[in-house]
Amino acid sequence: MSDLVAITYPDINQAQKTLDTLKRMVVEHLLELDDAVCVTKDSNSAVDLHQMINLPAAGAATGGATGALWGTLIGLLFLSPLAGAAIGAAVGAGTGAIAGKMSDYGIDDNFVKELTAHMPPNSSAIFVLVRNVTVDKVVPEISKYGGTVLRTSLSDDAEERLRAALAQRSTAGAPPAATPPTTTDTPSQQA
Predict the structure, then answer these.
(1) Which positions ≥6 away from 126 have C-beta within 8 Å?
(2) 111 shares its domain with 136
(3) What is the C-alpha separation between 152 and 4, in angstroms, rounded?
(4) Are residues 63 and 157 in the same domain?
(5) Do 118 and 28 share a structural domain?
(6) Could you tell me the CATH number of the domain that includes residue 34?
(7) Which region among 41-45, 72-76, 95-99, 166-170 has the lowest average model confidence (pLDDT)?
(8) Does 28 have pLDDT greater than 90?
(9) Which of 50, 60, 89, 172 could in theory staple to 97 by disulfide, Cβ–Cβ 3.0 to 4.6 A?
(10) Within 13 A of 31's CA, how many CA atoms are on the CB side?
(11) DSSP code per residue over 38-56
């Protein structure tokens, strides 16, 4: 079963940086994702969803391959397998792209839009469905970007550890408090 983790950022580019880091960790086999969505809200409050999986492209590829196969088989019946393959691939790719555009995979888009409706302008968020994770390697990497936990399906303890790691980055990234200058006179200053 996958766990949902949603984190918001006060910067419009931070969620994409986090997603890039997560994609790198997938390649390194530190993380398995079922889905990820990066959300940005620009200065005009326009919300854009950036899916990790391009469903129209995936649908077109699958539909094209399936259409070519069926077109070839039907073309064999009419002694024109090449024309059948070409027509089948075109029809299959078109219908696959439409089906991909109309389908939703993983994280529901309406759920994402509902949760990000109150984000301030020039901010971002990331939603991930995590199937498997090496926590001690992944959390320190994503905590570098800070952020605020918006929602998770993690256990209370795991969610609190994530919140603490992200908050630690937020306080570590803050400039140190100014110390007041000392006003004591030393013998060398009196001379």
Answers:
(1) 6, 7, 9, 15, 18, 19, 22, 36, 37, 38, 39, 147
(2) yes
(3) 5
(4) no
(5) yes
(6) 3.30.70
(7) 95-99
(8) yes
(9) 60
(10) 24
(11) EEEE-TT--EEEEESS-HH
pLDDT tens, 48-64?
Answer: 887 765 444 444 455 55
Total structural domains within the chain: 2
Q: Where are the alpha helices (DSSP H) in 53-191?
A: 55-77, 81-102, 109-116, 135-143, 156-172, 187-190
Task: List the structure tokens of 126.
Answer: 């990331």
The residue segments making up the domain with residue 86 are 55-102
For the entire predicted model, the pTM comes to: 0.64
The per-residue pLDDT for range 156-190, each reduced to its tens digit, is 998 898 899 888 865 554 444 333 343 444 444 44
Query: Are both 146 and 168 inside the same structural domain?
Result: yes
DSSP 183: -
My answer on whether 8 and 36 are in the same domain is yes
